[in-house]
Structure formats: structure tokens, C-alpha cells
Amino acid sequence: MAKNFYTFIVVPDASSRLHKLRLPAKVLYICTAIGLISFFVAVGLAFNYTRMAFQVADYNKLEAENVDLKVQKRNLEVSTVKLDSKLAALESLSERLTNLIEDGSWAKRFPKANIPAIGGSKVDYPTADLLRRMDLKAGVDLLKDRASDLEGQMKLLEQIAEQRNYIMRFTPNVWPVRGNITSHYGNRADPFNGEAELHQGLDISALYGSRVLAPADGIVIYAQRKAAYGNLIILDHGNGLTTRHGHLSRFNVHVGQRIHKNDIIGFVGSTGRSTAPHLHYEVRLNDRPVNPRGYLPRS
Predict the structure, then answer these.
(1) pLDDT for residue 285
(2) Which CATH superfamily hosts domain 181-294?
């Protein structure tokens, strides 16, 4: 059987001698196979290298993101602790304000200013959510709920405080003049004839000409001389509350004038049925005399 050969002619230069290279067909086939195998191996290695390079890049990116997430998680934990501390302080403040608003002595002295006791949660929390183990996200959600509740609570307290402040402005709770009480509210012996009588206010001794202050905001509805009262001023404070200021030496207001707490309305005198300079001071609720000491501070 004849051997198969492939002859290659090599021309190194146009004027040089030709060279012949004879390779057996088998050798040529082997070299071709080796070349093809090498090519595919190289392509495969290049593909694997490229894929590994992308994987390394993704890994580095994920590692960087992981580090960033850890930092964010730590910052979130620190912020959560600080926020929890602030919310606790706000809750404590809210509780103190609520206790002040619910102060029993204030409510007894000013029953018309009582605030109805209302409350409750606006969110329907399933029991399972309340009992489940709290993770960071759940903790943040809880803090958001607490912040929302506190915001609503603070708004309610603000409304109540504004309402109370408005009521206090029109409540006769300051002394109209400084001095000693020479005659209290209630039964007493008449200073002129010694007979028993009901004294409908307080007699407060003061120097002649001392300033008489408005005990609350209101409107002057009477300012003239009236029998035993002498020079008398009547202030209407609204909600059925009026105050009377008698035995004045002179007036500093006129009928229809709107006055504010601590405004000077007149001056101490001894006009009318009086033994010496003093202020006769009455508080009336729905035109019925009540003890002014129930409204005045204990000083």
C-alpha cells in the first residue's frame, strides 16, 4: 500500500532555491488534531478565566456591600438606642404633664374645667405580633408606632393645656390686693351692731389708695357707688363667674371696658359701710356668693 505524503514547497526568496518539506499524512492529521484541541482548550480556559474574573468582581462587590450593610446596621442600632432613649424621655414628660393635668386639687377648685378621661390605641395589634420575638426591623416599627402615639398624645396635651390656660385666664385666682384678711366669708357679728349676719366675701385690709387688681380677664359691668358697698366695681368673667370690689376710693375703669388679669381697676378706700380702708371682695357663681378662698392661692 502506497504511503500518503503531503509535500510543502518553501520559497525563502524569489531568487533562492526551493525547499521541499514532505510530511506523512498521519503526522499532518495529528498536528491538526493537536492544534484544534489546543484551540478549544485555550478558548475554554479563556472563558473560565473571564467567568472567574466576573465572579471575583461580584464577590468583591458583595463583600463591599456586606461591609456597608454592617456599618448601616450598626448605625441603625445606635440611632435606634438614641431614639428609644428620647422616646422614653418624651413618654416621661408626657406622663408628668398628664399627672399635672389630672391634679385632683386643681379639678376640685375648678370643677367646670375638668377634662373627660379618654384614650386608647388607634392601631389594632394582633396578639401574635405583640408576643413575637422583636428583631431590628420590628423594633424600628415599634419605635415609629411609639413616636406616632406620642405625637398624638402631645397634641392632645397641648389642646388640654390651651383649654386650661384659657379657663385660668378667666378664673379669679389672684389676690386683688395684698393685705391681711380682717373678716372671712361666712357667719360673723356685724361690726356696727354686733348682730349675726352672713358675710358674703372677704375683707382685706390695705393702705388707703393701694392698687386693686383684676383677679381675672373679664368685662366691667358695673362701676359706680352703691349703698353699703360704697364705690363698687363688678367684673363679669364668663361661665357664670363675677367678682365684686367694694369700698373703693376711686375707679380706674368704666362700664363696658374689657380688662385683663392684674390690670389696675381701682384703689382701696373706705366708702360706704366701712370702719377703715380695706377691700370688700366677693366671688359669685351664677349670682350666688361663694367663698373666694376656694379660688385664691394659699399665700
Answers:
(1) 94
(2) Glucose Permease (Domain IIA) (2.70.70.10)
